[in-house]
Structures
1.
Amino acid sequence: MLQELSVEAWIQQRRSNLDEARRSAAEIISTIQKEGDAALLRMARKYEPDLESISVTREEIDSAYDEVDDILVESLIEAEVRITRFHERQKDHDLWLEEVEPGITLGVKTTPLDRVGLYIPGRRAAYPSTVLMNAIPAKVAGVPDMCACSPPPILPLTLVALDIVGVTEIYRMGGAQAVAAMALGTQSIKPVRKIVGPGNAYVTAAKMLLREEAEIDFPAGPSEIGIIADSSANPEFIAIDILAQSEHDPDAACILVTPDKNLVEKVKEEISRLMQELPRTDIITEALTHSGYIVTPDIPGAVSVMNGIAPEHLSIVVQDSLPVLSAVKNAGSIFVGPYAPVAAGDYASGTNHVLPTAGYAATYSGLNVSHFCKTSTVQIITKTGLEAIGDVIENIADAEGLTAHARSVRIRRSFR
């Protein structure tokens, strides 16, 4: 059940999992680097003993549709439309140029990455929503080549979602080994430029260890929610949101920050009652051991505490929500009001649910189109433009002792 926590205790326990996972992840990375496909197949066979290949065939993808209800397929397609609509608004122009003064035109050229890897969690459940969240911003950005990895056995629902978004290069592998294979490449897997997607502590640790080989989105480990609430909040709504995050993973965690101690007690009662109606109680019970509450003097104090926590998901359930929203600085995705459950963002509102965890929302943004692009600055300069800035360049270059820099301008300025 919920325990009283401090900000320091919360951050420490969220990041300690990563520290412990780094050693194991490093060993797995070394094994993949040495053995490649053979190691990947051996590891996959622990979960699918008769497996002949880590690659998923077109026939397997097609047959997956036979095992997924048509209504669910339609729901995934509708979610894809909503998520695409939101991410289209994030897209930058491929090239913009502006003449800032006579003879000097500046701009930015945006180019999609040429190949990315998508990590899709699995094994405990199918996560078709994460397929959509990973692949759609990459598609909107214009990434031409994507592969996806998910722990074996990959469920039909995951394969259908991957097909809906157009990803057909799919591998049966999970954990740190999947990250290593995508970053380093193997005999059959081309290395990628970037790896995105949430995972357990081992996946996150591997992503962080391999950043010199392939860039990553951000540390995205076990799910979490922070809730700022006052006495106007519905305890049942808060309790079910806590349970919803808890059912993700035994390492998930939730924290309620409120000035109302009575609300904490009411939420505890609702959690006990609602848990009796849910099937994944073993996972929920474990997750709740990492969860807790903090009582603050007032709502501004609650906001200050939550900015220190920097949660993956932040729910704001207070009587006057807009000032609180304005004061929030650190959160992956924010849900405002009693009728904005985190599940809305998980599936169908259109925002992305791949988000930084363990306090990293203070540094990183959630997955978006810009994660799949790189930019180059552009300058188009005529002789008139160079003349306008020539003295500035030469003076600074000479002061730095970079004579050739200064001469590269003087030669041009004196050319007739």
2.
Amino acid sequence: MIRGIGLDLCAVERMAGHLAQGRFLPRYFDEAEQAYILSRGPGAAASMAACFAAKEAFVKALGTGFEGVPTRDIVIEHLLSGQPRYVPRGLALTRMQALGAQQAHLSISHDGGMAAAVCILEGE
């Protein structure tokens, strides 16, 4: 059963500015996410935009926004195949479970200077 759906768009150019500034990345992303984003070279801003959109989509699926859910508790991992996945922890995991969701599904895309993410929270 679907417990929540969230969708978000994020401008790559906006994230490029934040990336150049340097404070946004450690504030909103955990160490593994930061390493992944920085490893993307010229595509770092697009990856950062996609990961941030994924975090926004997750809290929209929760129905709460970021209120009381630290962005660093919504971790985005990438499998060797490149497939993204959520690894919620802390308050993000607690809120997800309170909705009756056991799984969070993620799809990410980028095109035309934008990154998009969809989150589907699923439970019994």
3.
Amino acid sequence: MPMRKLYRGGDPRRAQNIAELRAMAAARIPNFCFEYLEGGADDELTLRRNRAGFDAINFQPRTLVDVSERDLGCELFGSRIEMPAIIAPTGFNGLLSHEGDLMLAEAARDAGIPMCQSMVSTVSLERIVESGVRHWMQIYPFKDRENLAGVVKRAEVAGSEAIVLTTDVAAFGNREWDRRNYRAPMKLNLDNMVDVATRWRWLFDVLIPHGMPRFRNLGDFLPPGQDSARNAATFLSSQMDPSLDWDDVAWLRDLWPRKLIVKGILRPDDAERAKQLGVDGLVITNHGGRQLDTCVAPIDVLPEIREAVGPEMTLIIDSGLRRGSDFVKARALGADAAMSGRATLYGLAAAGKPGVARALEILRSEIDRTLALLGCPELTRLGPDCVRLPQR
């Protein structure tokens, strides 16, 4: 309809949903940043399948239920969270807004949910922990196990609740649209250089006067003076360890005394193997469609993984969540909580911390409204009877 246009200005209070924050982000940040945030691997079939998986699930509400008071909270590893959401680990956030990781942490703290910080974030893990957020630290399987153990020790000393091992990066996904923005590795082509020069709000937030963001948790891995986002990207890609196997999970389990979460599970047999090794939680994910194309959607395999590991294992899902109703569907099908990656990054890219806060406010209001309309006054009462799965 002609009058249906998404708001693209700078006031996050005017955003009605996550899609509107996405439109605002696209108007504020350079094309190369938005493409990095938005894109997927190969033909982006997995990216679209993640959304299609949620869209295909229908609700089956109860009626004549008193929902005048509703509780969106639940327990995660024995402690309450105020809604079934976690800020997902995402890298290079300093390119979206200055010290973007800290903004994500502070918004998560204020919303009463955890934040999982990426190893390739641009704020030190110690500063994020000091913000008071419930902190998890994500790590990549770098070849240098000694320095990897050093990052784990830093997280322990700082007070992180959990280590999250990402396991689905034996090779980097083929993100063709992202690469088209560059004439050489990390060197923008002319069109994108012109585009950057027109993004004044972004320039005076990210680059002026701060300069290129730096990786604050990777100093021991990188050559001296090579910790900027521009210089380090190529080096880091060479440090991923394709030999990672279950022995490394056992090594990490022995090294880390608190909650250990494995991120990258999509098969029931892998989930059972992780449980046998003493892993405390799993993230069911296809890396947001950024790694293997034509991959199964996490929401489609969630029920069978829950059946395989039983009710005690903590299961978290990510990839494709854009509405509060998606979090409700995930919870109904067996997830303890879900991770928000792009949804909250759209808020960050649109308006910094107020944008992240608005994204979480939107998701919370949508979860609350969905519970009311489902006839379910408490999140913890959700179950498979609340949804209808597509016929296979």
